[in-house]
């Protein structure tokens, strides 16, 4: 299957919502070389290299069961980040989708007196009270991806930008329509689990971006973030629509099934845009079988580990004037196309 040749959108997208710090990989924000600070002790921490070995800190990490490519990448990226530092001792709990088991893991971290906890909760609301207990015990909690229901449960929260993913995908779609002078385009959307706020945010961002170029989604279906569901709903979509110009699929893991349905139906008249940034998606982009994908960073837990280390060592981000780590970090949602796929290849994950 070869995708219809379309002019590539060059340059950065405009209008992507990014809050707090927009570094995709925070290592770029924490590796300034030391500068001469004279005798002023109050400025020493803001100009020293944060990657230099400091006091050893023990960080507890609890994440999800690795039953999805992106989730597996979350766990492995946390371990890989910790291994880069001689001053991190990582206590890595077995991944779980059971909130009760994860609560027990966090309670163990508290009893062990770790210096910080990085937590991607199976259920943010269910883990909130236990996270508050850690904070009250003087252990900073770094909340990743799924938010707690209380601001008192985390010292810092690291998030991907679900709404921004939709905005990026929609803005890119508008560019394709303009560049190819497509009149009355048929735009389809393959969402994930509709009941999840993250799916709703992605769809809202997509709709808002399309509205900016006077377009709307003509056909929307929802899958379940699995290969099987992706293939089923994509096959049904193709049967229902004889002609489609652009399809945005929210998730590159379910995209394996979506792509299989496209191949089986021998349909390639549309521009296929994905979401998350899997290695499969980047392979398809390089092969001309996919137009683009929108990154939802699998580095969030790795960034959480790096921030936990800085917080536990009393440091801030060296590229910021502010001397403390921000309370909230929302990562960017860039579009990866044939023009820049090489830049993002190292961040892809297996699906």
Secondary-structure topology with pairs:
Layout: H1 44-47, E1 57-62, H2 69-83, E2 88-92, H3 99-112, E3 116-119, H4 124-136, E4 141-144, E5 156-159, H5 162-179, E6 187-191, H6 197-212, E7 219-222, H7 227-240, E8 246-249, H8 252-265, E9 271-276, H9 279-286, E10 292-295, H10 300-312, E11 328-330, E12 335-337, H11 341-344
Parallel strand pairs: 1-2, 1-3, 3-4, 4-5, 5-11, 6-7, 6-8, 8-9, 9-10
Antiparallel strand pairs: 10-12
Helix pairs in contact: 2-10, 3-4, 5-6, 7-8
Instruction: Label the CATH architecture of the largest domain.
Output: 3-Layer(aba) Sandwich
The helix content, as a percent range, equals 25-40%
Whole-number tally of structural domains: 2
Spatial strand order of the main sheet? 2-1-3-4-5-11
Mean pLDDT: 88
Beta-strand percent range: 5-15%
Low-confidence parts, pLDDT < 50 over ≥5 residues? 1-47
DSSP, total strands: 12
Morphology:
elongated
The DSSP helix count reads 11
Quaternary structure = single chain
**What name goes with the CATH superfamily of the largest domain?**
Response regulator
CATH topology of the largest domain: the name is Rossmann fold
Q: Structural class from helices and strands?
A: alpha/beta
The CATH class of the largest domain turns out to be Alpha Beta
Query: How would a crystallographer describe the biggest sheet?
Result: 6 strands, parallel
Q: Topology as H/E string?
A: HEHEHEHEEHEHEHEHEHEHEEH
Domain Periplasmic binding protein: 59-315
Protein name: Ribose transport system substrate-binding protein
Organism: Nocardioides lianchengensis
Keywords: Signal
């Amino acid at each position: 299957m070869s995708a219809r040749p379309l002019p590539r959108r060059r340059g950065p997208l405009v209008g992507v919502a990014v809050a707090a710090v927009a570094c995709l990989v925070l290592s770029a924000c924490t590796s300034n070389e030391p500068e001469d600070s004279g005798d002023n002790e109050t400025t020493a921490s803001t100009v020293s290299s944060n990657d230099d070995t400091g006091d050893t800190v023990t960080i507890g990490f609890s994440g999800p069961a690795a039953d999805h490519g992106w989730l597996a990448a979350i766990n492995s990226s946390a371990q890989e980040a910790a291994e880069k530092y001689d001053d991190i001792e990582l206590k890595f709990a077995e991944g779980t989708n059971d909130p009760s088991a994860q609560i027990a893991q966090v309670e163990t971290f508290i009893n062990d007196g770790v210096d910080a906890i990085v937590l991607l909760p199976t259920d943010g609301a269910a883990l909130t009270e236990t996270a508050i207990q850690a904070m009250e015990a003087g252990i900073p909690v770094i909340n990743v991806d799924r938010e707690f229901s209380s601001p008192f449960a985390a010292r810092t929260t690291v998030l991907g930008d679900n709404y921004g993913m939709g905005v990026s995908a929609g803005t890119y779609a508008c560019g394709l329509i303009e560049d190819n002078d497509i009149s009355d385009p048929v735009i389809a959307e393959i969402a994930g689990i509709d009941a999840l706020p993250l799916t709703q945010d992605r769809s809202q961002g997509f709709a808002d971006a399309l509205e900016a170029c006077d377009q709307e989604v003509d056909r929307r279906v929802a899958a379940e973030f699995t290969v099987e569901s992706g293939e089923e709903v994509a096959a049904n979509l193709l049967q229902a629509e004889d002609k489609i110009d652009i399809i945005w699929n929210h998730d590159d893991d379910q995209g394996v099934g979506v792509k299989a349905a496209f191949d089986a139906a021998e349909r390639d008249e549309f521009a296929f845009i994905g979401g998350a940034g899997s290695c499969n998606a980047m392979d398809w982009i390089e092969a001309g079988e996919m137009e683009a994908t929108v990154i939802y960073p699998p580095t969030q837990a790795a960034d959480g580990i790096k921030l936990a280390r800085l917080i536990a060592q009393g440091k801030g981000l060296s590229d910021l004037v502010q001397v403390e780590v921000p309370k909230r970090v929302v990562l960017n949602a860039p579009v990866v196309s044939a023009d820049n796929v090489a830049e993002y290849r190292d961040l892809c994950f297996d699906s």
